[in-house]
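#struct-help
A.M.: can someone run this one for me? Single chain, 164 residues.
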Amino acid sequence: MTRQISNLTLPLALSLLLVLAGCGNGTSRKAEVANLKASLARVELERDNLQKKLDEITKDRDQLKKKVDELLRLQTQVTELTTSRDQLQKQCDDLIASRDQLQKQVEQLTQAKDQALARAQEAQTRIGNLTSHLQATTSKLTDLEKQLEQVQAAIKDLQQKLNP
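D.P.: on it. Structure tokens below:
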């Protein structure tokens, strides 16, 4: 824009110099000076308008730059949050896998405990049966020992009667 203004002001300035240098008569010189002043006023008005547009564009550019900076900051935050979310998701997946593995171990241990309890109950039943059998056998043995003692006593009596 500054270049456009310079392109317009240079010919006007040269024309003004020529007029002031004395080219032509007084009336035409006054008319030419008036034309040059009007052209200069238009150029200055155009320059001022261009400066206003430049200021507006600069202001818009600065606002857009702020928006871009804010978007870049938000993009960085989103990237950080995405990374954090991914890490948390991995931790969650790891914890779920660990929980599943522990659940499987608990199920295996529960099954082993149930089997051990069943074996212990079977053993307890068998011990009870063996205890009952042992008591019955002990009772029979006691009866047989008493009978043996009676038989031995009877034999001894018979031997004494036979060998007086």
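A.M.: thanks! The mean pLDDT is 88.
D.P.: also worth noting: Residues 151 and 157 are 10 Å apart (CA to CA).
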